[in-house]
Design the sequence.
């Protein structure tokens, strides 16, 4: 429930029924011109109506009628054909906010945009319909589909513990971020790798190719912003990525690598994070540049050399004593820039939990790096909580607090429950982003909604898994209840619950069978970008940028310094990237040099890997069932089958969902219909109310609010709740009864 000030609390105790309202359209107060309004909120769940469980999304809808002013009718002012000077205030997509309350004290109830407006000929009012923040998610649903979770070349284990590529929560967070709804600092405009780490190691920008170690620990407790990966107590977990664009180390910009940390309670173990950028030259022998944060030693370090183990290379060290003395949220960023001869220079900037910070001055590691491109990025994580990892290509190093921390450039407008279900493979989605979020919520028994302030809230099934013991509000027939119908029905009983899940354990990918080959010969003048476009099938996973090499071998692309297949190869000059969207893959080739280069390679100029599932394989379909024989003895076997459509991929999650459904449906709970109460602006979806009726239904039970309809005509307000009972009326005893059998006699 929303909190109420003393004035509103007193009005509710006194039974006040005359409502106050504040309605703004386009930032202008139009409440006095509103004659009537109706606000409808409910979960679009697919669970049986009478079951003690709910899931799905809620998209609030506001309808209102608007009158004119100054002797001018509403249609003349605000109708679809009204002058723009007055009509734009309620045009489609215009902002709408609505608060209502009592005794002059109001609470936020709706924040959204106009969906439609209409004016009837001869009338004096204009009607409009508005939808909440869900309207911001009407763009196409787009999720990355990394193949790393089923890549046979990656060091994965047999369980999801080592294959937690993503999670339903991670996918919801990604869809929100695409719509500008953020939970932590967003990607910079020139980010080439971004991993939110909000319930999955997958990259939001870039491509996850391998995991090792334990990636099952995700937490909101002491997360820097919203949710974070918790590294292992000892040793390191690692993830390997390929950036969306492969920068070059001779003529390109600098790279800014950053992450948010929290070290609260991390007093032992390997309290360290390494980020390694490997550079691929003409001979394919990588050169590794690594930055390290070591909370145990109180040091930042930078390494450069050809040894994959950072300590085998040359290094520079910055001492940061605060790393060992302060706990809380940290931001640490590293700047890497190469000279024209390939010598790397590092510097770092640290923001402490207490708000202070330090600039670690530039230092150079001896030894030039050959002309090359960025091959991959390797994250190694110890006993720390980390989120918002990213690498950006920038022309200058961020130096002001606003630039370093992105202060004032984003607002946190969403909250997510902790991830509870892992994914090896992100399922394909279609439709709008809101439709995809709704499908994920239904599949995982979660809820998705925007509150009255426009904040998005994602809640997992834990909110209703256990019957509540207390309520936020009591409504009684003696005072608040105007009408109530209580029904008990067999459809409320579900005592045999089955959940299907997709088993990807024995599935692998083939990266070559459908590789994208080009024989194009393309001139790319200095400072320009060439492109090649390929189609992309629904069975294909994400393609990452090919690497520059002397020949177009699988996974490679070839450039020459003249329009000839025998001309010299060019390295460290062209930044190759991929953009995946709407069924196509676009390969971009940005020439950072001062001379024209040619895409050429003899029989082929490019061979880009395109992962697909090997052979005719796919995930195995498995089931987990949970039942209750005592309930079946009283009510018979009542089946409920739940198909998460690919969003459950391990037996643990399937078991937990099946058992939660069984617990919710083992005995019938009261179905509470048409619960009209004394209107209360504090009530929100998901609240628990105690319903006490001593006049007719004779009921005293807790129930969840799964629907709210509030209507007002002038100042008269009416509110009707849709409730789902939170407890059943005990186990049947049939005392003194001898039920008749279903059949009398037998067939000869």
Sequence:
């Amino acid at each position: 429930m929303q909190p109420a000030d003393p004035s509103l609390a007193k009005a509710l105790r006194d039974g006040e029924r005359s409502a106050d309202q504040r309605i703004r359209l386009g930032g202008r107060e139009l409440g006095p011109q509103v004659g009537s309004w109706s606000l409808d909120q409910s979960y679009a769940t697919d669970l049986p109506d009478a079951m003690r469980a709910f899931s799905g999304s809620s998209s609030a809808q506001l309808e209102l009628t608007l009158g004119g002013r100054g002797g001018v009718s509403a249609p003349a002012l605000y109708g679809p054909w009204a002058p723009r000077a007055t009509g734009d205030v309620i045009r489609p997509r215009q902002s709408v906010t609505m608060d209502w309350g009592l005794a002059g004290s109001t609470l936020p109830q709706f924040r959204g945009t106009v969906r439609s407006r209409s004016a009837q000929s001869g009338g004096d009012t204009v009607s409009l319909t508005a939808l909440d923040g869900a309207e911001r998610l009407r763009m196409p649903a787009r999720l990355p589909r990394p193949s790393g979770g089923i890549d046979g070349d990656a060091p994965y284990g047999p369980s999801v513990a080592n294959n937690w590529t993503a999670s339903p929560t991670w996918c919801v967070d990604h869809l929100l971020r695409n719509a500008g709804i953020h939970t932590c600092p967003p990607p910079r405009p020139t980010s080439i790798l971004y991993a939110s780490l909000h319930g999955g190691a997958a990259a939001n920008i870039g491509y996850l190719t391998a995991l090792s170690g334990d990636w099952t620990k995700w937490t909101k407790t002491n997360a820097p912003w919203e949710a974070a990966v918790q590294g292992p107590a000892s040793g390191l977990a690692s993830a390997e990525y390929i950036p969306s664009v492969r920068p070059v180390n001779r003529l390109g910009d600098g790279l800014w690598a950053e992450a948010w940390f929290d070290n609260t309670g991390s007093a032992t173990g390997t309290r360290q994070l390494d980020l390694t950028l490997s550079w691929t030259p003409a001979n394919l022998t990588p050169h590794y540049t690594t930055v390290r944060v070591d909370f145990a030693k109180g040091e930042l370090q930078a390494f450069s050399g050809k040894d994959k183990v950072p300590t085998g290379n040359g290094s520079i060290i910055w001492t940061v004593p605060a790393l060992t003395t302060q706990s809380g949220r940290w931001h640490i960023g590293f700047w890497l820039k190469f000279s024209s001869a390939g010598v790397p220079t590092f510097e770092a900037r640290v923001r402490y939990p207490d708000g202070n910070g330090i600039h670690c001055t530039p230092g150079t590691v001896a030894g030039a790096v050959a002309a090359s491109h960025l091959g991959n990025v390797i994250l190694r994580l110890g006993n720390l909580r980390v989120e918002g990892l990213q690498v950006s290509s920038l022309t200058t190093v961020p130096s002001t607090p606003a630039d370093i921390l992105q202060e004032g450039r984003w607002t946190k407008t969403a909250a997510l429950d902790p991830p509870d279900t892992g994914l090896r493979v992100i399922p394909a989605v279609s439709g709008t982003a809101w439709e995809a979020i709704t499908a994920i919520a239904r599949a995982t028994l979660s809820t998705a909604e925007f509150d009255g302030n426009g904040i998005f809230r994602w809640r997992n099934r834990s909110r209703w898994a256990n019957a509540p013991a207390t309520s936020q509000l009591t409504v009684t027939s003696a005072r608040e209840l105007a009408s109530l119908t209580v029904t008990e029905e067999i459809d409320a009983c579900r005592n045999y619950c089955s959940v299907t899940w997709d088993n990807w354990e024995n599935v692998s990918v083939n990266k070559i069978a459908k590789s994208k080959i080009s024989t194009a010969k393309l001139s790319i003048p200095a400072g320009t970008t060439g492109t090649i476009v390929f189609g992309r099938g629904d069975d294909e996973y994400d393609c990452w940028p090919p690497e520059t090499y002397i020949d177009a071998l699988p996974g490679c692309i070839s450039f020459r310094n003249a329009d000839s297949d025998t001309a010299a190869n060019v390295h460290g000059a062209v930044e190759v990237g991929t953009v995946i969207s709407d069924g196509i893959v676009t390969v971009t080739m940005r020439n950072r040099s001062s001379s024209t280069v040619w895409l050429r390679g003899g029989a082929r100029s490019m061979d880009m890997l395109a992962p697909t599932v090997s052979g005719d394989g796919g995930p195995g379909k498995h089931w987990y069932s949970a039942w209750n024989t005592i309930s079946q003895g009283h009510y018979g076997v009542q089946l409920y089958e739940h198909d998460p459509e690919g969003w459950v991929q391990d037996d643990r999650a399937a078991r937990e969902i099946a058992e939660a459904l069984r617990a919710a449906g083992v005995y019938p709970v009261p179905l509470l219909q048409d619960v009209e109460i004394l209107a209360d602006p504090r009530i929100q979806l998901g609240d628990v109310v105690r319903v006490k009726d001593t006049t007719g239904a004779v009921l005293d039970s807790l129930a969840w609010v799964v629907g709210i309809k509030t209507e007002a005509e002038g100042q008269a307000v009416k509110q009707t709740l849709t409730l789902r009972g939170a407890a059943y009326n005990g186990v049947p005893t049939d005392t003194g009864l001898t039920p008749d059998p279903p059949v009398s006699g037998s067939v000869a």
About this structure: The radius of gyration is 30 Å.
